[in-house]
Structure formats: C-alpha cells, structure tokens
Amino acid sequence: MIFKDVREGRPYPEHHLTTKDWSRIPPRQVRLETLVTTTTVLKLDRLLSSDSTFYGDLFPHAVLWRGELYLEDGIHRALRAALQQRTVLHARVLELDALR
C-alpha cells in the first residue's frame, strides 16, 4: 500500500494559510506510508506533466491533526514519488494540533 489511507475530504478545521504562509514552513521528510490522502480523485494529466509544479509550491502540503498526517495538496507529487520507488518525500507539514 502506498498511503496509510485514502479518504475524501478534510477532517481537520480550516487553517486559512495562504501560499506565503505555507512557504514559511520548512520542508521535511515524510514517509508515504504515513500519509492519509484527502482526495480520491487524481488527474492523470497532472501526474504526467513535467511542469506540474511550475505555478505552485515545489513541496506537497500536509496537515498533522489528531495524530494523523493528512496530505492536503500534492497527491500527484506523492504518487510520482511512489512510482519512482521512493518511500519518502519532502513536504511542508502544518502541525495543526500545536496551534489549537
């Protein structure tokens, strides 16, 4: 199994972080097997695109909430890492538990 779980929707409260706010969070290594996805849909064209991060953050965004690590943005990057036989990727992790 690539991810810990695949779900639809975000179970955590809205955090209201902007792109600039996310950029202040340093990326860290995250094991793919610890991630819970927040979408069940993957657009194949985004997965196969060589410039899929051209207009966005280079790092996926994850939220730590109640002990679970939810992949909020970057499912295509995480799946691409798995297809390349990697077990970890660098992601920006918002520790929402610590903010509440």
Automatic annotation (TrEMBL):
Top-level taxon in the UniProt lineage: Bacteria
What Pfam families does this protein map onto?
VapB
Q: Tell me the protein's name.
A: Arc/MetJ family transcription regulator
Species of origin reads Halosaccharopolyspora lacisalsi
